[in-house]
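Hi all, long-time lurker, first post. I run a small reading group and we've been trying to get comfortable going from sequence to structure in the token notation. Rather than ask abstract questions, I figured I'd post a concrete chain and ask someone more experienced to write out its structure so we can walk through it together at our next meeting. Sequence below, copied exactly:
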Amino acid sequence: MSQTRRLAAILAADVAGYSRLMGANEEGTLEQLKALRRELVDPKIAEHHGRIVKTTGDGVLVEFASVVDAVRCAVEVQQAMPERNVNAGADNRIELRIGINLGDVIVEGDDLYGDGVNIAARLEALAEPGGICISRMVREQVRDKLPYSFEDMGEQSVKNIARPVRAYTMSPAALASLPAVGPGSRWSRASERSVSLSPRLRHGFALSSCPLPTCRTIRSKSISPTGSPMT
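-- Answer (accepted) --
Happy to help. Here is the structure in token form:
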């Protein structure tokens, strides 16, 4: 039986220093993560037409039909994080790292596999806490549609990916300097003109519910094109 494939924008996000946070305050960290998902991350994903593919203890893997929507979602989530941490001490501050890739993926039920997914996870690991890292394909798609500037990191050799990956990053400082993108702005209209990669994703968001600490982190376990975990 032939495999089903499609082109998709994949966003991978996780919590920087998750093990340290859980070691210091397991119950408090878990409650913070649940609130973060409920109040910010899940609503932003739905707002930008994303589909949650899977969650881990500290992370989430999301599919978008539009690269522009994926990047805008990432930027808006990261821009909102400093306000959530304003009263948090250095030891219990939650900071996200986000990676975004555009690539061909293998579809198996509601799950996705292949290098398109793996590269997003590796880009997430390259991002600074509070920052975003994207692939060359993503940058090419959004450079004339969104007013975001990404710094070229050059070719990066990443685990279990045969070829070097050209990566571009946006630091927390760069994110903090961005103006808010409001409805009806020129950049919002540009987003609406972006090419849809998979129209079926425009309907029905599968919002996952519980981030359990026993799950694997996205960056420590990648997924092979055959569907088996790679370490």
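A couple of things your group might point at:
Strands lie at 4-15, 50-55, 59-64, 96-108, 111-113, 132-135, 151-156, 165-170, 222-223, 229-230.
The mean pLDDT is 81.
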